[in-house]
Fold:
Amino acid sequence: MLHFHSLFMISAAAISAPFALSAQPQGTVGEYSDTIITGAILEPSPKRPDSDSALLDRFQLPEGVTASVFAKDLVNPRMLAVSEDGTLYATRRSVGDVVVLRDDDGDGMADEPVTVASRPGMHGIAFHGDQVYLATVNDVYRADVAEDGSFGALQRIINDLPDGGQHPNRTLLVGPDDKLYVSVGSTCNACSETNPESATMLRAELDGSSRTIFASGLRNTIGFDWQPETGQLWGMDHGIDWLGNDAQIEELNHIQQGKQYGWPYVYGMDEFNPQDNPPPGTSLETWASISEEPALGHTAHAAPMQMIFYKGSMFPEWTGDALVAMRGSWNRRPPSGYELVRIDFEQGQPVGIEPVMTGFLADDDGAWTYAGRPVGVAVGNDGAIFVSDDSEGVIYRIASGDAPPNGQQAGPVPNVLSPPPASSPAIETLKPEAALTVKGPFSAHAAIDLEYTADGENASPALSWEGVPEGTQSFVVISEDPDAREPKPFVHWLAYDIPAEVTALREGFPTELSLPDPEGVKQGRNSMGSTGYTGPKPPVEDGAHRYHFQVFALDIPSLDLPPAADRATVLKTMEGHVLAGGEIVGTFDRN
Structure:
């Protein structure tokens, strides 16, 4: 690869000569942006010292902390994971495999690596008991782990993750709730994704079933983990490129179920991206209001990779803190990243970010070079820290020389998530006094056509309603499955602020937050974690489920809620305003 550095001026109007300009948008951002942003391409060149000792001499570490080469000549080690018995594993994306790294002879270095699994694009790895989970771009696999550290046959449990695009590197972990979490990056730098699962954190059962969007608006959260004292999920998200040397910050997010985190239209502390406009009917201000701000920011373009919370005993002062490998920038002058950092947590909250291992990056008489690019980080059973370098094929072991470890680790991470309480369908909860007659493309209690299901075209069915009472000022549409296991009911569609003159919705309704036609319609968050309609997809073994398409007439023109509201909020706001309601129920069986 050719390594170079250059300077670009990017303008919405023209390419200009480089001179000092403000990176703040002029005009009305989100409608008619007019700005010039200075962007740098600076790719440091690889320059590894001739010997391991000279390499180790480069590194700066905290007092009493040492680094050693645990394994080398590995080509492309990326994500790291330690099994229950303390064995270290590394995925190699470019090689397309997983290697096991043991030190059976006790010389402080790994023996010859052994490949235990192979698939193109192998990247994510996580252990759960005596099983391992592995992720490629589109697939998730599960396998048994044998006593000798080898893997059994790979069982593909997910085969339809979104295509990779710009961010194909999937990572995964098993949470304290015994659910599988998979991070899916965006396909682009900043754009409106057509697949709602792109730029998200997904959550599924351990067999890959019942997949939903846990959180959205996450551009590329490769590193995530649960804080061991609080059980809260945290992750480092990659910021947008080409916003300047110091924008976008790399974000530390408290990732919560059902929350949105800004990308692609809002970044950092509610800053507006001048490149992209939200869908018609939604403003940047609205998008910001329904998005979460990061808890902390780190230097832009540092490229956070694997992240783990330290639960070992070798560094007791770091217990409960997070360690993050920063692979390093290409879109910043001077470069950032190329280090291992520690996020200091106090009483479960992040308070600062400190370097742990630096020295990979160097300014050699004005020419930037690097001796490695940290990617993976894991903690051994003895409390030592492993760091992988995917550019030079090295894995380092960071240890303390102050005192021998006692081999003990923190207890289990608490599970703070519980399923929502079961509820009846909305029409039974709200108990409207008058009835609407609702019609759809299927007869009452008849099978729903495949085109309206997730296995088909995922198109919303056309709905119409009659018997509207006098005084109606708006409608709400709610589609639910009361036969779902969790949540009960499972919400497939929430649409509100439908104008009073609209008594029919066409087939294949858009899924955007707000709609220009019918004007003013807002759509809430379904139980899949997206907005708009998502079609039936019951577990095959369940047999037929019932799907209630419900329409409610309200005596108010608007619920005065932002888009992406959840079912509980919508129902609570509707209370006391329902004039009439009706439904048509269809069934679907995937057998």
Remarks:
- The longest strand covers residues 578-588.
